[in-house]
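INSTRUCTION: Work out how this chain folds

Token vocabulary: learned, describes local backbone geometry

RECORD BEGINS BELOW THIS LINE
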Amino acid sequence: MLRERANPGDVDRLLFNTATQDGTRVRIGFGKDPGQAGKSQAPHLVRALSGFTVMPAAESGDKVTRFGPVSSQCRAGNVKIRRAGWNEDLFRALEGFPDLAHDEEVDACSGALEMLSPNMKHWGFIGWMRQTGEALNEQRKPEPLKTNWAQGSVEWQEEQERN
């Protein structure tokens, strides 16, 4: 894992240098923003990383829902993290999610699990957790406010007729 804040040109160079160090046997994945920016960024990055296996993946659902399977696998002891100088920064970002301003590491971990487990959406418990999380998020959406019309008004009478 490499943590850098850089302008777009430097990011391209950083990605290419990291890919070169990792070698062609390592698959490169990144989240593809569903908006217009993602539609132009994904082909650009694939071209910039010519010679490597690059897999842009469309992101769906909110970040908290996408992170649920990673969190579950960590709690179950199924995630191993190589000891390195960046460990504390990663743990701080994961433990602070979703309250921290920057959540790129969280997105990277969610994307990595999906990349390593391409059929994850259809896995029993993990798929169920994803579906449950998405359903809970739908339930949290506020219901539209109901207008209380003055009794006897035209609007009140129309509402009485509809009910």
